[in-house]
Structures are given as C-alpha cells and as structure tokens.
Design a protein that fits this description.
The protein is 39% helix and 16% strand. By secondary structure, it is of the alpha/beta class. It has a domain at 3-164 and 224-243 and 283-298: Rossmann fold, CATH 3.40.50.150. The longest helix has 31 residues, at 19-49.
C-alpha cells in the first residue's frame, strides 16, 4: 500500500462552528492532543531503550488509532506514521481543531479495517513498527488481530502495545472495582448503587448505570489472562517481552515517581523487579518481534517469565 492509497484527512483551517461549542470543547481537545504527543514520545523512547529506535524512514502503524491523534503527533515529530481502526474518525474532531491551537493543516493517513474479514488494509510486510496504546482491551478476537499485525509487519519488524490488565483493581472504562473479571449485572448494580460511576453518570439511577456498564463491558472489552497472552504471542511470533520498567522511566504517572524514587536512593537496579511485580495490577507493556526466520525468533530473548 502506498501513502496516497490511504484516506488523507485534512484538519480544516476555515470551518464555521458554534463558538460556544468550540470554546467548551477546546480544552478537552487540546488535552487529547497533548496526551497523543506524550504517548508518541513514550513509544519512541521505549523502542530506543530496546535498542530498536524508530527512524524517520520507517513506517509505523498506530493500531486502533481512533481519531488519529497519535498519528498526527508522530507525523508532526517527523515520522512516517499511519493509523487504522474499525470506525472512521469523526470529521467533527478536525472541525473543532480549527478553533484550537492545533489548527494548522496536517494530512493524516488513516484507514478503516474490514471487519467482515477482519483484515488490515495494507500489503504483507508493509510496516517496520506496529504500536497501540489503550486498545487491546477492546479487541474481541485477539488471535486474528495479532495475526494481522504479524502479516503487515516486515520480517524483523517490531511491535509494542500498552493496555490495562485483567487484574487491574479498578476497571478504567466504567470505574468499577474488578470489573475486568466480574461483569455480572448484579455485581455492577451493587457498585453503581454505592456510587462507583463515571462523572458523566452522575444523576442517573443505579439500574441505568449498571445496564450501560454491563453492555459496554460485554460488547467492548475482553481482558486476556497473562497465560493466554503469552501463549498467543509466542505461538505467532516465538517471542514476547514484558517491558513495564521502560514505560515507567518515560511516563508521567506513578511509575515515573517510583522510578525516580528508587534511582535517587541508588536502587535503580530494582526498578525492573518492582515493575514486574506491580504492573499486573495496572497495565501490560509488551514487545515482540516478527522473526526473519526460525532462528531469529530468539534474537531478542524470551522475557515471558520475567513479570
């Protein structure tokens, strides 16, 4: 696939829109794009830590790109980024951008996944890197998705994915304790009844919130166990590494605080161990390589036990 074969979405510079709506959404939009730049820099830093830096000549795919914000960020940083998702991006995102500080024209190559066959709209061996952030918990058929990632990666191509774990204490999308595992309607109703809900659900009845959460979790999430994840990726790629310590080092959250704290007292070598212990309670950070041949599957080692 060539760049000109993908959908080129322009951020318009002269779009008339309700000023009050634009003002209301401006901060949220800028926050989304600030996060996109943070995610882009995080991914670039992780690949550099792994000794596989992304070059400006490489093609990188944002799998599950949503509105294409991270593709936008990567391309603004000078990288040859593409994005794909099962849903086309809303043009309203770009309309609202015309009233924000990120209003300069930028062409973002985005494509839509064929969900009938579940096939990524790219040729075999097309990308040097495939990445995703907060996407894999929404995939319903991980085997097919990872097989497609393998297909579009070049031999020796690298892939990194960060997403919430099955063992996360608070499910991040519905804000209910252990709803990554327990998703029965009665369980969700109990937590809604005692006030565990998103801000957007304030004022709604517990039954309404529980029903919405039940449908969302049933239709839009699927959390793999660590065993299933390792088995799947080792079967497809022959290798998988868990690299939460690199994410901690370059993120802005609690992991960064722990990393800096241990480094300050001369205990930096403990960071990988602490990260492996704590990361199953929050977020997976996985890295794998498409083998160039059978022997090359061991090139980066097997860290599947080191979590």
């Amino acid at each position: 696939m060539r760049l000109e074969d993908s959908v080129l979405i322009d951020s318009p510079t002269n779009v008339q829109e309700n000023p009050s709506l634009a003002a209301r959404d401006h901060d949220a939009i800028c926050e989304d794009y600030d996060q996109a730049f943070r995610n882009a820099r995080l991914i670039l830093s992780v690949f550099k830590e792994l000794g596989t830096p992304v070059g400006k000549e490489h093609r990188i795919l944002d799998f599950g790109t949503g509105a294409g914000t991270m593709v936008y960020a990567l391309r603004k940083l000078g990288y040859n980024a593409f994005g794909t998702d099962i849903v086309p991006p809303s043009p309203n995102v770009w309309k609202r951008l015309s009233h924000g500080r990120l209003c300069d024209s930028c062409k973002v190559p985005l494509t839509v996944i064929d969900t009938t066959l579940y096939r990524l709209p790219y040729e075999d061996d097309f990308f040097d890197f495939v990445v995703s952030v907060e996407v894999m918990e929404h995939v319903q058929d991980h085997g097919t998705a990872f097989a497609e990632i393998r297909r579009v990666l070049k031999p020796g191509g690298k892939s990194f994915h960060s997403f919430p774990t099955r063992y996360r204490i608070i499910e991040p999308h519905v804000s209910v304790p252990l709803a990554t595992i327990f998703q029965q309607a009665g369980y969700l109703y109990f937590w809604a009844l005692i006030g565990f809900r998103h801000e957007s659900d304030r004022g709604k009845s517990a039954a309404e919130v529980a029903r919405k959460n039940y449908v969302y979790l049933r239709d839009s999430t699927k959390y793999l166990t660590k065993r299933d994840l390792v088995s799947l990726l080792k079967g497809l790629f022959g290798n998988i590494s868990f690299v939460p310590h690199y994410v901690w080092k370059h993120s802005d959250g609690m992991g960064r605080t722990i990393y800096e704290g241990l480094s300050t007292v001369g205990m930096q070598k403990l960071v990988p161990l602490v990260a492996r212990v704590l990361s199953p309670l929050r977020r997976w950070a996985i890295f794998f390589v498409k083998p160039e041949d059978r022997l090359d599957s061991q090139r980066f080692g097997d860290d599947s036990r080191n979590l």
